[in-house]
Structures are given as C-alpha cells and as structure tokens.
Amino acid sequence: MRIAIIGVGSIGGILLGALSDTDAEMVAVARGTTATELSDMGLVMHMPEGSIEVIPPDAFSTFDSAVGPVPDEIHGSCDAAILCGKADSTPMLVQLAEDVLTPQGVAISVQNGLGHAEALAHRLGRSRVLGGSITHGAWRSDEGTVHWVGRGTIHLGWIEGGAPSGAAAELLSALAAAGLEPEWSENMQRIVWTKLLVNVAINPVCSIAGVRNGALLEVPELWEQALGAMQEAATVAEASGVDLGDMVLDDHLRQVAGATAENRCSMLQDVMAGRLTEIDALCGAVVSQGESAGVPTPRNAMLHALVKGIQISPHFD
Fold first, then answer.
1. pLDDT (mean) for 30-59
2. On the CB side of 188, how many CA atoms lie within 13 Å of its CA?
3. From the CB of residue 210, how many other CB atoms can be counted at a distance below 10 Å?
4. CB 100 within 8 A of CB 74
5. Confidence (pLDDT) at 110
6. DSSP letters for 241-278
7. Residue 155 · residue 183 · CB < 8 Å
8. Do residues 45 and 17 touch, judged by C-beta distance below 8 A?
9. Distance between CA atoms of 27 and 46, rounded to whole angstroms?
10. Which residues on adjacent β-strands are paired with residue 62?
11. Out of 18, 142, 159, 288, which could bridge 178 as a Cys pair, Cβ 3.0 to 4.6 Å?
C-alpha cells in the first residue's frame, strides 16, 4: 500500500515516522525547508518512551509542494492520503490529495476543526472520504525534530457510515501495524465534534493566557471560560442533529486537561512561534454553525476575537 502524508508537521511527522516502519510505501508531501530536511536528512523522532528514532530519507519519497505540480512518479499512485496540515491550508491539501490518489484511493483528514471531510468529499466524492480524529500528542522543534509526547488513538470511518472496505481496510491495517492504535467508528460525526468540544475549550483559553493545559484545573477563572466554550459548542452540535452520546462535559474536559497537564496545546505553540492559528476552524466554526442553527455563542465569539487580536501582533507572519 502506498500512503501519502500531506503536511509533515508534528502529527504528520509521527504518522510518517511510524508508518515508515511498516510494509507501507510512504510519500511525504511537505513545503520548503521541511521538504528539504526530509529529503536530505530524513526524520528524527523522539518517542514517547524516551528513545530517539532516525528515519533515513530513503525510507520514503519526498515531494516539495512549493516547487510545482506533483511529479509523474507520485501522481495518481497513492492508495491513501492523510491530510495533516493546518486548517487554513485545506483547499491546497485537498487538491494535492486528488492529485496523488489512484481512482480508488481514499483520503482522510485528521486536522483540527470542522469541514475538512466535506471539502474532500466535494472533490473526491463521499464514497472515497473518511472522517478522522487523532489524539496522539506531538510537537515539532524549530530544527525539524518531531517529539511524540503521548500515545493516543486514531478514530476513522466512512463519513456515510459502514464497515471498512477496500483501501480503507488496508489503511486501518497499516495504522495498526505502525502501533498507532486505530479504531474504526460508525459515527464519525460524534467523534469529530467530541474533539472539537475539547479543542474550543482548551486551545484558545490556554493560548490567550499563555499557560499549559493543566492550568485550567488550577485557575477557576480559566476553567469557567473553557467549560463555557465547550458547553456552547455542545449546544450547537445537538441543535445541528449531532448525537454526542452520554458524555458528561465537565468530567470529559477535566480528564483531558489532567492527562495533558504538561502539554502546550498546538494553538499556544503557534502563538509562541508567531504562526497563524486554527481559531477560525475551531471557535469560528462554532460561531458560524451556531448562527445557522439559531444558537447564540457569545463565549466562542469572544475567544475567537481575542485570538484574532493576538494574530495582528507585529511578530506574526
């Protein structure tokens, strides 16, 4: 099976590294410096258990998407494409997925936020698109080293529901062989929204305050803002016809914040590095969906505005 990782940052890095140790043939689609580093030096990955793995550059093919169209040797050759880039790059990532996939190939997005699977389905058709959500923790240093800081799972499933088949079944097997703990889901809508609820609670509040996740459990005022944003998003989800099951929001948020207490969330990492954040795909998406569903979302609107305000600072790209 040939698998393309489109966007090799932190999460894309652990997927590329882990899958390179399997029988899958890997393609890394990156841009600029990242593509050059992968092509010349390979991938250095700090494992959750403390060891360091060096994946040589000949363990995968690398394509720099900034230099031109997909080359002939990669075009139309991949059985699966996993989108890992930032939310604001989704249109470009979707085009790349269409270019690298075989006619029967499947695509999956493990990006934060809403709408990525739908964007893929618009180009590829719903029968070739999987919903995805990943809970593995990772960050990427300025030198390009990937730090896999916590093992988790990958949930995936057809956006229309149903059992795994074809390239999707092969991808599921490859992820399992890589030790990435895949779990097939018949209700990806619930999985994606559950991840969104956690993201709108933790990411903007920790990014604005400049604190690690565990601070939410230590500062009551931060906890109030985070839980309020989560509760708003849950109301929007239910009004939009999403079945969230029997999840107790307070308990779920407390569990995630506790388990990742020492982590700097991805949005805080972006703020610290002067990169644009994914706030539009998180709180912005909740506000937009809330307007469509007739649900007020003042807490998410406030957090959205505050993070957008941080992004106009001169140190941002």
1. 94
2. 27
3. 12
4. yes
5. 93
6. T---TT--HHHHHHHHHHHTTTPPPHHHHHHHHT---S
7. yes
8. yes
9. 21
10. 28
11. 18
